[in-house]
Amino acid sequence: MSGQFLEKGKISCLQMNLGYKCNLNCNHCHVEAGPHRHEQMDLAVIEDCLRFVKNARVKTVDITGGAPEMNPNLRYLIHELRKLPFVESILVRSNLAILDEDKYEDLPQFFAENKVDIVASLPCYLEENVTYQRGKGVYSKNIRILQKLNRLGYGKAGLKLNLVYNPGGNFLPGPQQELESAYKENLRQRFGIEFNSLYTITNMPIGRFRSSLEKQGLLDGYLNLLTENFNSENLGKVMCRNLINVDWQGRVYDCDFNHVLKLAIDIKDNYIGSIKPGDLVGRPIKVGSHCLTCVAGAGSSCQGSLKNKAV
To answer: How confident is the model over 141-183, as pLDDT tens digits?
Structure first.
């Protein structure tokens, strides 16, 4: 990928990483979030992000973390975004288990009232695989929250509930449509759970997942797998063309993965409050070997496989 040239187009999606604090300590987490982390986006940075959204007339705001629910400014951010008629989608990426805690148990109702799309990570529909990635007891919490979301109308009555699958090891995800069918059949039959779509996301060889591969002597093999499955058809569909990512301090990146690798966009005074939307268009996107993850096989983005995505 280092020889490939990609450039930024018009920004339609602002991805905000509200911080690395999380209730879980998942072994595949690329941002290495957890209960021990304290970095969180403050209100001043959020206000500057809101100004960028207004100036760029951003259509989608993608809120992630860590567990974004743990940021005390989340409700304010969503309230302010809901006032903007051109924002078509506000989505929150949730590990679900956080919504089972007393402090956050009213958030599903708040999300529903504000028509927030929920992108919920469920690494597998089988308990043992979720336990391996996320820890004991997480699966049962996920099921309870999914059922609660269904009662609020998510996955059924116009409120979007999308699940995320990522492989449990050093292999590419299977076909998204087939996995979605298996998820829907299993969760419906066993728990009466409904959801809209499944996103398959390839594990990025950075953060904890990279460390795990290195310890097992599997890193080179995984990188070779990504290289061997390079698919040039995905280059025109990668999310970094029309997305920017903002970290908890307001610094701007081409994607959440470049953010983790500290590959900030080369622009004077790289801070979301100082950047004009037009300054980004046409700028070269920073790429590296890790970018093979997004273009290998059927492709991978924060909204799933690239296979059927229009250019």
So the answer is: 999 999 999 999 999 878 999 999 988 789 999 999 999 999 9
Quote the CA–CA distance of 61 and 15 in Å, as a whole number.
6
Burial class of residue 34 in the structure, from the number of CB atoms within 10 Å of its CB (0-12 exposed, 13-18 middle, 19+ buried)? middle
The residues, ordered by sequence, that sit 6+ positions from 81 with a Cβ below 8 Å of its Cβ are 50, 53, 61, 87, 90
The CA-atom distances, in angstroms, between 291 and each of 3, 179, 224, 252, 281 are 11, 24, 13, 17, 20
pLDDT tier for residue 3 given thresholds of 50, 70 and 90: very low
Look at residue 311 in the predicted model and tell me its pLDDT. 59
Spatial neighbors of 306 by CB under 8 A, at least 6 apart, are 234, 237, 238, 294, 295, 298, 299, 300
Taking all residues of the chain, what is their mean pLDDT, rounded to a whole number?
92
Q: Is 231 left (phi over 0), alpha (psi -120 to 50) or beta?
A: beta
- Note whether 162 and 130 are within 8 A (CB): no
